[in-house]
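Retry 2 of 3 after timeout on previous attempt. Resubmitting structure tokens to design endpoint.
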């Protein structure tokens, strides 16, 4: 039994309602009927493609459809490390139950590409699976909008091929103009191209089309944050957090909000409160570990170095591995011991970190993240020339001109290397550049981060803070 009603939220006027009592096997007919009547009620005009889409059931297998719906929900709401692999599993189950389910094949393609993007599986085979699933969707439904959308993400996430990605997203809009994932994809690409205002507008459109898609809402908040519109970012983060349920909750959003307060106000107190909000919402040890991994940073910024070491010891991961950075835990230990003046332990941990990174690089010479971290390790070991070489190579491999978000991190790491090897003017040049464009660095963050303490007596550094304050 389905009770459907359409109400004008602005005036509370009741426009249309109807009750349906049907067999579950008729659920798609009910959806089509409701969609048609809402369209009439809104006096909207459907394209031919949209009208055909409304009248066509995506699959005759209800169990396959349930798996497909669960996959889309997981994609929108769940934590990355758990949710992205689970999305793949659910979509694979959907196409296994109905090999003719074109939309599920398209969604499976997108899930494979996402797994690659988040460095959960950077294999060529993963990209091949993404391309194959999209091709299968086109075989079943030529011109399918979701398949074009999947290829858009494939070219973007797999190759940073922005032009081909935008071409596919444009084709997808021809048949499914109200698909928020397409508008989000366009926004993500524009953001990586450094077209921040355009990205903001695209992501606003995505969030408006599906205000319950936490993934789109949180990305909108991140975009405000990167543009240093912090008050707007806070409001949208809260909106995104309000969408989470006990079943679906991404702890990274709470960590992002904590980071927002550090960048916006330099407030470790508010950052702690945001992390505590996470602990109050979840019981899972696996999800709480996200908060554990951020607490050492808060302690570090407060100069509570012994507490930072204790927090770091409680983190189960030996490597902080994300699309923006690859940081072995010994590298963090080394920094903390260096700040405490315990040079012997500092050098031992820098040596351990360099061994881990050198081993990783043997099979991943193009990974800019490894070169950045290795540059820091070499700087800690007093290997100035090697440190600068590695840090500069990271910038060359992932320049801001190619990737306006990922490219920020190697520039910041280069500045850090310059500080560690005593090239203070060169470090300030890099920080000046980062503050002049949208990004992660802010004046309040520079003021509380002990990484930059040695610069505080430099007139150029003080002038830099005043310039962007």
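Retry 2 succeeded. Sequence:
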């Amino acid at each position: 039994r389905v009770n459907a009603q359409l109400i004008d939220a602005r005036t509370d006027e009741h426009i249309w309602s109807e009750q349906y009592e049907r067999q579950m096997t008729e659920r798609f007919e009910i959806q089509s009927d409701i969609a048609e009547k809402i369209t009439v009620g809104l006096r909207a005009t459907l394209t031919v493609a949209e009208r055909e889409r409304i009248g066509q059931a995506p699959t005759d297998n209800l169990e396959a459809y349930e798996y497909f719906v669960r996959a889309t929900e997981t994609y929108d709401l769940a934590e990355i490390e758990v949710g992205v692999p689970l999305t793949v599993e659910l979509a694979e189950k959907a196409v296994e139950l109905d090999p003719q389910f074109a939309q599920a094949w398209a969604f499976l393609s997108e899930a494979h590409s996402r797994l690659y993007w988040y460095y959960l599986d950077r294999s060529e085979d993963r990209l091949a699976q993404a391309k194959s699933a999209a091709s299968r969707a086109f075989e079943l439904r030529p011109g399918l909008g979701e398949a074009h959308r999947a290829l858009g993400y494939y070219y973007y996430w797999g190759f940073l091929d922005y032009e081909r990605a935008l071409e596919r997203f444009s084709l997808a809009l021809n048949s499914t103009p109200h698909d928020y994932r397409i508008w989000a994809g366009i926004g993500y690409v524009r953001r990586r191209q450094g077209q921040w205002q355009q990205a903001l507008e695209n992501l606003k459109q995505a969030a408006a089309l599906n205000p319950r898609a936490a993934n789109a809402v949180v990305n909108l908040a991140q975009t405000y944050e990167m543009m240093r519109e912090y008050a707007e970012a806070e409001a949208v983060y809260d909106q995104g957090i309000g969408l989470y349920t006990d079943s679906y909750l991404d702890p990274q959003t709470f960590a992002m909000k904590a980071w927002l307060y550090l960048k916006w106000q330099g407030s470790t107190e508010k950052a702690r409160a945001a992390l505590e909000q996470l602990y109050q919402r979840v019981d899972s040890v696996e999800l709480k570990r996200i908060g554990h991994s951020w607490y050492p940073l808060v302690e570090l910024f407060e100069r509570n170095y012994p507490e930072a070491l204790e927090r770091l010891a409680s983190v189960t991961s030996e490597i902080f591995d994300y699309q923006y950075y690859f940081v072995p835990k010994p590298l963090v230990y080394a920094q903390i011991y260096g700040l405490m003046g315990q040079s012997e332990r500092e050098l031992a941990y820098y040596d351990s970190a360099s061994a881990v990174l050198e081993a990783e690089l043997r099979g991943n010479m193009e990974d800019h993240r490894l070169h950045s971290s290795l540059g820091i390790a070499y700087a800690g070991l007093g290997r100035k020339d090697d440190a600068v070489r590695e840090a500069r190579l990271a910038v060359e491999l992932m320049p801001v001109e190619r990737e306006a978000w990922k490219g920020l991190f190697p520039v910041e790491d280069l500045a850090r290397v310059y500080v560690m090897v005593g090239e203070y003017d060169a470090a300030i040049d890099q920080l000046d550049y980062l503050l002049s464009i949208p990004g992660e660095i802010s004046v309040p963050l520079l003021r509380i981060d002990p990484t930059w303490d040695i610069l505080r007596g430099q007139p150029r550094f003080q002038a830099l803070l005043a310039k962007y304050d």
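Attempt log closed. The first strand starts at residue 2 and ends at 8.
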